[in-house]
Design brief:
By secondary structure, the chain is an alpha+beta fold. The protein is built from 3 helices and 8 strands.
C-alpha cells in the first residue's frame, strides 16, 4: 500500500484541508438554517460495506438516523428554525489511502484519495424568538472524496468535492 508522502501530506493539510473545512462549515450549516431540502446531498450514497455496516453513519444527539433522507426529513418536519454560530473547526487526515467501495486504495499523486476527520463546535439558537435558548454543540464528521466530482467538474457543473461518510452531532448541555 502506498503511503501519503510527507511533503504531499503537509501540502494537503495546510492548503486543501483548510478549504475543505471552510467550505463544509459555510455551506452545510447554512443548509441547516435555510436550505433544509438539500441536507441529504451532503452525504455519500447509501452503501452496505462487506462487513454489513451501513454507510453513511449518522447520529443526531444520541439518535441513530437510518439515512441522509431521514435526517433531512427530521430537519424539514420536526426541527424549529435555527441559527448556527461556528466558533471553531479543525480537520485532520484520517486515512491517507482511502478506497471507495469497489476501488483500490491509493493515495494518488495529489493526495485526494483520503478520509478526513473534521470536528466543529459552536452554538445553535433553536427557534426564531428573541428569548429562544442558545445551546452549545459539537459535530464530528468523516469526509470522503466524491467519486463523481471530476466528471462533474469536466462538464462544468457545480459539485461537492467531499461528502459526509459519518456524522455525530451532539448538543452540549
Amino acid at each position: 500500500m502506498t503511503a501519503l508522502r510527507e511533503d504531499t501530506a503537509t501540502q494537503v493539510s495546510t492548503e486543501d484541508l483548510n478549504t475543505v473545512a471552510e467550505n463544509l462549515v459555510q455551506r452545510y450549516y447554512k443548509a441547516l438554517e435555510s436550505s433544509r431540502s438539500t441536507i441529504a446531498s451532503y452525504f455519500m450514497p447509501e452503501t452496505v460495506m462487506p462487513d454489513g455496516k451501513e454507510l453513511p453513519s449518522i447520529v443526531f444527539n444520541g439518535t441513530v438516523k437510518s439515512s441522509p433522507d431521514t435526517l433531512q426529513k427530521m430537519f424539514e418536519d420536526e426541527m424549529p428554525p435555527a441559527q448556527y454560530d461556528i466558533q471553531s473547526y479543525d480537520c485532520q487526515i484520517l486515512n491517507p489511502n482511502y478506497a471507495a467501495v469497489g476501488t483500490k486504495a491509493s493515495s494518488g499523486s495529489n493526495g485526494r484519495n483520503m478520509t478526513v476527520l473534521m470536528v466543529v463546535s459552536g452554538t445553535v439558537k433553536l427557534g426564531n424568538q428573541k428569548e429562544s435558548e442558545t445551546k452549545g454543540f459539537s459535530d464530528t464528521f468523516v469526509l470522503v472524496p466524491n467519486p463523481d466530482a471530476a466528471a462533474a467538474k469536466a462538464r462544468k457543473k457545480p459539485v461537492k468535492e467531499w461528502l459526509v461518510q459519518s456524522q455525530t452531532f451532539r448538543l452540549v448541555v
